[in-house]
Design a protein that fits this description.
With about 220 residues, the protein is α/β, with parallel strands linked by helices. It has nine helices and six strands. Helix content is about 40%, strand content about 10%.
Length: about 220
């Protein structure tokens, strides 16, 4: 039997940092005359690359240099807000260890990049627990396009049909579906009923069995 690929989103999955992201975006946009409605943010933009979020709320194109400068402001605010609360999701480390012992290939695919990826993976000593990482700087099209997860599966040497994706966002779920991968919905940002194609919904990783996740693969 081929090795499964377990693919993890970062924000809201390996750590519960989405409230800090949301508050940082709320403050950022309010200072620029835009009121952020939380439900709309979660349904329409959560999981998108930062430049796409800026385009959505500003209703215009945002050139790369401007987007980079604005993103730096927002991300610095986010890191300051989340730093006192920074920790891995409940049960994550034990699950990663059990999954690796069970023969799974472990990857992380995120719409974040640069300092934010380092802030989580290095700040929580998680980077070495993943066999491959794909961030927003490595893809042309962010979620809900499947590029992130397909590129990650390629890095892991695993066929898409042998992959299961852990996602908290609806756009991420759609990206995994388009990639031909099963989805475990992590219900930190949306209720289980809001996901359309998830094979399983969990609140965190406590008590989760690698064998049960392996069995969700389309190719299983």
């Amino acid at each position: 039997m081929s090795a499964p690929g377990f693919l993890f989103d970062m924000d809201g999955v390996v750590c519960l940092n989405m409230p800090a992201h949301e508050e940082a975006w709320r403050r950022f946009f309010r200072e620029r005359g835009v009121e952020l409605e939380l439900r709309e943010f979660r349904e329409k933009t959560m999981g998108m690359p930062t430049r796409e979020v800026l385009r959505y709320y500003f209703k215009r194109d945002v050139p790369p240099d401007e987007a980079a400068a604005l993103a730096a402001v927002k991300e610095e605010l986010y890191r300051a807000l989340y730093l006192p609360e920074r920790r891995p999701a409940e049960g994550l480390v034990d699950f990663l260890e059990a999954a690796r012992a069970d023969g799974a290939r472990l990857g992380l695919g995120t719409g974040s990049k640069g300092d934010n990826v380092s802030f989580i993976l290095d700040g929580l000593d998680l980077r070495a627990r993943f066999d491959a990482v794909v961030d927003a700087g490595e893809v042309v099209r962010g979620k809900p396009d499947p590029e992130t997860f397909l590129r990650l599966a390629g890095k892991l040497g695993v066929e898409p049909g042998d992959c299961v994706v852990f996602e908290d966002s609806l756009l991420g779920e759609e990206a995994a579906r388009r990639a031909g991968m099963a989805v475990v919905a992590v219900t930190t940002s949306h209720a289980a009923a809001e996901f359309r194609s998830a094979a399983l919904a969990v609140g965190d990783f406590r008590g989760l069995s690698p064998a049960a996740v392996r069995a969700l693969r389309p190719a299983a």
